[in-house]
Amino acid sequence: MYKRKARGWSQHxxxxxxxxxxxxxxxxxxYLFNNTFSSALLRDRVFWSLVVMLAFIDLMLLVTTDAYHNxxxxxxxxxxxxxxxxxxxxxxxxxxxxxxxxxxxxxxYHIFFxxxxxxxxxxxxxxxxxxxxLKQRLHFKNHTSMLILATRERLRQVATTLINQNYDAYRFxxxxxxxxxxxxxxxxxxxxxxxxxxxxxxxLHVVANRDTVIHYLSNNWIDEVYLDVPVGEQMPTDLINEIxxxxxxxxxxxxxxxxxxxxxxxxEWICGQVTVTTSLGYVSGRDLLLKRLMDIxxxxxxxxxxVVLTVILAPLIYISSPGPIFFKQTRIGExxxxxxxxxxxxxxxNAEQNKKALQQASGQGDQLMFKLDHDPRxxxxxxxxxxxxxxxxxxxxxxxxxxxxxxxxxxxxxxMSLVGTRPPTVDEWEQYKPSHRARMSTKPxxxxxxxxxxxxxxxxxxxxxxxxREYIENWSLxxxxxxxIRTVGVVxxxxxxx
Length: 498
Prior knowledge:
3 domains; Rossmann fold; two-stranded antiparallel sheet; 13 strands; alpha/beta
């Protein structure tokens, strides 16, 4: 029976458990280093609260940052860099916990400053030693045996790719040339000629052909078979069924999918049918849940801040331009869904009616992004006799991005996310080319990669689409955190406001 390999963070539970153990030992060691051992350690509730909460935080950090991605392939320098980065995250988390628990004693902060370097040292030693242990175990145990089936034309590429990416997971016992029916020794000599110069596969030999492969499988230890089907050739279902009837696991490479530009390709069951699913980006159920929880937490905080801001801004907006405090507009969300987006009103009541006239006057009538350096529709914005422009309450809340705060209610409703792509208006959406639609294949966000990369300085819409595609294709929870941190800096420095 075939055991499906674990993917993502779940395949590194051993490293995660050891990491958390190193953190707990570091905390206790730091405590003992700063205090003589006594029964006070057992009675210190604050300390044990830190131990429990920090272990949970460490677990969340390891999962969300994917700290053990390709851990067995990392060299010593990369491992040291990763360990220091993890220790830095823990330091930030520990300082936040001390503030949250209102711990102000000098002794507690001595423990804090001792924990981080001790944790970094123990964690680095643990990772290096445990990797060596795993490599030794992989090297000396009986590996899963695999037989490669491919055509003569494809065999060199298939074999070198598999062996170079193997990392001791399989023991390749030989190759079968599917389009050869002659003498096996002649086929093996031909294989040696094909593989000339490939040191990694110099020990790979032809052990059977299409006619004799079943006989070979019946008389040799083979756990799994890798079958490469050339593009345009019919799937050898009879051969696959015959091998499966022997109880041997068969992996079939779908080479016809190689020409697809999508970075994410996954085999799935759709209505009882096996399909290869392709998409610009891929998100697991676990990551989607964590992103939604992050949105809810941020949405709650942002919504409370919006309520406070409403008390301050509402009278200023109303006095400058009587009318609603909030501006509501239909926007396009994920995959074309329409929703009502909220903002603090920063423009006069007739702003939408005057938009088309301003677009034509500024020569931006056919552009997908409308932007004026000095927009007369903004509340309080007007040109003085000396040619300078006066900025009112509308310009202030736009330059400081305060007008965006009501969108936290959209985040709580699920129409938007904290981080994503900016939702277009309906008239912008209707002008999109097919390639532009890709930017709306994810949930729109209050901030995003475009916003922290220049915003108003980027007038080329194709560049905006490129940045949005880059975000979707490389999405991760860590990327969202980086964008949110950069957003704070952009807002505080008032760079690229719209």
